[in-house]
Model the fold of this input.
Amino acid sequence: MDSKTLRNLFGQFATGVTVIGSHNGEGDKFGLTVNSFSSVSLDPPLVMFCIIRNSGSLEPIQQSESFSVSILAADQENISNTMAKKGGSEKFDDVATFTAETGAPIITGNIGWLDCKLWKLHDGGDHLIVVGEVVAGEIGEGEPLLFAGGRYARLAKN
Done:
């Protein structure tokens, strides 16, 4: 199967939208939009996401040995789009954040967040599978931002 067809096929699977935040220990924030986020284990509390090997956000995650997961709300498409672009800490210029235990930036206005210590990196072809141990988190309020078929979606109202 060619990669375009495979990518389109993967896109049929509806997901939530998250921003993975990290820092380099010098005050610079880094972030990327990720929909490959998933829970792994409750004991120990582990989560995972996949990151392309040449991502500019990979090195800060490795340097700080930490990352955050901001689960985006339905009204945060603009943040998702900003964090999906190439770039560095300037992506956070107009994005409000806070930190928890690891110092990784967490997006304000999310519907939930996790603060994680890097647990392990695994080979995943052209990506790396990043596993983190959850050290803090909080449930927020609101509806999730969803992604399917190459576009954003929202939960249907009954």
